[in-house]
Each structure stands twice: as C-alpha cells, then as structure tokens.
Design brief:
Elements: H1 2-33, H2 57-61, H3 69-89, H4 93-100, H5 109-116, H6 121-130, H7 141-149, H8 159-166, E1 171-174, E2 183-188, E3 194-201, E4 204-212
Antiparallel strand pairs: 1-2, 2-3, 3-4
Helix pairs in contact: 3-5, 4-7, 7-8
C-alpha cells in the first residue's frame, strides 16, 4: 500500500514538472514568433524615424555584381570622390581659402579636380575668368600670397612681393616724383633681347608687359 501511494505521488510530480517546463517552452516560443521589438510599440522613436533599418550605399553596392552598369557608375563616382578628397587635403591653408571661395561655382566634382590640377595660380585665375566666375578680379591678401608662392605676379602686389618673386630689377624708371612710387621695373628674360617690365602706381602693381629692346 505504501509503495502504491509513493508511486502515485512520484508520477504526479513528474507529470507536473514536465507540464511546467512545457508551458515555459511554449511561452518562449510564442514570444519569439512575434519577431523583433516593434517601433512605437516596444520603444519610442524620434519624429520622422520610421524604424526601418537602412544600409549605406556602399553596403548595398557590395552586393551588386562588379560587371553591372550600376556598380561601374558607383565605382567611378567613388574614385572621383577619393581623388578630390586627396587634392583638397594636400592644399595649404591659403590655397584652400582661395579654392573655397569658388568651389561651389563649379558644376561637378570632376571640374573641381580639373581646377585643382592646373599647375599655376595664374592658370587658375584665367580659368575662373573663362568660366565667367570672376571678371577682372581684385586680388585679396591671400591671393597675393599665393601668387608669391607660385612665383607669379598679380595686380595689387607691393614692391616687396614682386621682389620676392622676381628678385631685384635690372633697371628702375620713375614717372614724375619718385616719392609717388609710379615706377617701371625692368627684368631680363630667357628670350634674347626681351625685357619684362612691371608697372607700379603708388607702389602697387598695375600691369606688366614684355618688350624688345
């Protein structure tokens, strides 16, 4: 009799424990069936946030075959961006200040690259004039300093700045009173019989020319 009661109790406990475990497992499965947490239901979201998960364009393009037209366009665009970033990062502060004044006037990143690869400051200014971005520009101090760095002459330079680029002149001619600093400086050139003249008005560059003597 005692053995029968013990067997009944043991069987009841076993059934109870098994059923409890089963209930917990089913409860967890039902929770997992609902998926991940739902925006606005399980957590608050910012205004305009749909709760969707977005991937960057690079991540999306990594799944596109390399020979597809879309992938080729993406790679070309990325190459242009990298080249432009390289050119911008290597500029001095003065060069970047000059570039930033006009960079938003260019139509594309390719045009910005072309502008930055022009070898001289004078060519950059000429390109801006051809594009109609500037018209007979008035050079600021940054641009004058850039011209000195490029060993070029621009209107408005002081005599000291010209000497920093050209050195001391071979001859100096004065128009009127020398204290007015209306002068013409002459420099020899690599062309036989040709002199480069720099004209000053009140001590500032007004223009220049090459003349045969």
């Amino acid at each position: 009799m005692k053995k029968l009661i013990a067997l009944i109790l043991f069987t009841s406990c076993s059934v109870f424990d098994f059923q409890a475990i089963k209930d917990i497992r089913n409860d967890r499965l039902s929770q997992s069936d609902s998926g991940f947490m739902t925006p606005t239901e399980d957590f608050r979201v910012a205004i305009g946030d749909s709760g969707e998960v977005y991937k960057s364009r690079r991540e999306l393009m990594n799944r596109v075959p390399n020979d597809s037209p879309e992938k080729k366009i993406f790679l070309e665009s990325e190459s242009v961006e990298n080249e432009l970033g390289f050119l911008e990062n290597r500029m001095t502060n003065e060069e970047y200040e000059f570039y930033s004044m006009y960079s938003d006037k260019f139509e594309s990143e390719s045009e910005r690259i072309y502008f930055l690869t022009l070898p001289s400051y004078e060519q950059k200014v000429e390109y801006l004039q051809i594009k109609g971005i500037v018209d007979n520009p008035v050079y600021n101090n940054t641009e004058k300093k850039l011209a000195v760095d490029y060993l070029e002459i621009v209107p408005g330079m002081s005599k000291d700045q010209v000497m920093a680029v050209m050195g001391n002149p071979r001859r100096v001619d004065y128009a009127g009173d020398p204290t007015d600093q209306n002068e013409r400086w002459g420099y020899a050139t690599t062309d036989q019989g040709v002199t480069r003249y720099i004209y000053f008005e009140s001590g500032r560059v007004e223009g220049w020319e090459h003349a045969t003597y």
